[in-house]
Amino acid sequence: MAAIFVVVFIASLSLPTHLHAQDSLPPVLADKIGLEFFRTGLNPTKSDDILPSWVPPKASPCRDYAGIVCDHDGIVTGIHLSNADLAGYINVPFALSHLSRLDTLDVSRNRIAGPIPDFSPILTLQVLNLSYNGFSGSIPDDYFSGVKGLKVIWLAYNGFTGEIPSSLSELDGLTELRLEGNKFSGKIPASIASPTLKSFNVSHNSLTGEVPEGLERFKASAFEGNDGLSGEFGKTGKAVEAAVVEEEEKKKKKKEEEEGEMDEGSWGLPVALGVGVIVVGLVALLVIVRRIKAARSFNSLNSENHQEGTGSADVRHQNNAYV
């Protein structure tokens, strides 16, 4: 078993880095190979001491690997390795890009260093937690354009520099953004002030300028430690929370209107049919009444004619008698 895995593992080195697991290998095998690349990148000089439960030839990542979450098909969906004494770097091209259903990566509270990896090949990624590591350097302004599925981003307490990427505004479903304890500078992009944000913190950086209006609802502690930052912090919802409530009301009203339209549509046909039946019934009744009246008039006329005819015959008989 070990020999087979080694052969497949070595063969996988020749795979193009842009291919996903579904393009080349069965998902379960691709997951296993990808996780081994990921493990060996974490302090490769003593990789056998890192995550010993992952050391080949363990049979199943879903059953045997610590920190791995899988779906009902046995495909890896989550890596949860917080506080696991990891170092080295995160290998995305050869490793994580082969995990075709990975939606959560949590490697917080370790000693992983270097620039932020490019996670764009992981098309399914929704939760990214790199907090409390040694990541450094600036994050390109368009970085998050390639990972639009992200909903939760925790980059707190690293050594990131430069400005906060404005491409964060492209993440329509972003609910949590934690950037505290870095060296970010410049202004907070107003475009990231989305009503969908439930958790937000940029404290202890080097930010300047005014806090965007849409972010003032968060407590002052979310902005402290930025000497150049100004604004009204901690509006406990009276301004922005009201906007959030208003947005929810709009959604509710829209839903009710849609349901109302559906109700109208569902009742419209029966009502129309009912009205049609009544109209047809009234017309038929009117026709019947008219026919009855016509028949009565005809019978009455015939009776009168018959009486007139009888009277004329009597007169003629009397005249003949006189003759």
TrEMBL record:
Transmembrane annotation, as ranges: 267-289
Annotated source species: Acorus calamus (Sweet flag)
One Pfam family linked to the record: LRR_8
Gene from which this protein is expressed: GSO2
Keywords for the protein's UniProt record, in alphabetical order: Kinase, Membrane, Receptor, Signal, Transferase, Transmembrane, Transmembrane helix
PANTHER family: LEUCINE-RICH REPEAT RECEPTOR-LIKE PROTEIN KINASE PXC1, POLLEN RECEPTOR-LIKE KINASE 3
Keyword Flavoprotein part of the UniProt annotation: no
Protein name: LRR receptor-like serine/threonine-protein kinase GSO2
Region Disordered, residue ranges: 244-265, 302-323
Molecular function via GO: kinase activity
Entry-linked Gene3D superfamilies: Ribonuclease Inhibitor (3.80.10.10)
InterPro entries: Leu-rich_rpt, LRR_dom_sf, PRK1-6/SRF4-like
Record has Membrane as a keyword: yes
Signal peptide: 1-21
Organism domain of life: Eukaryota
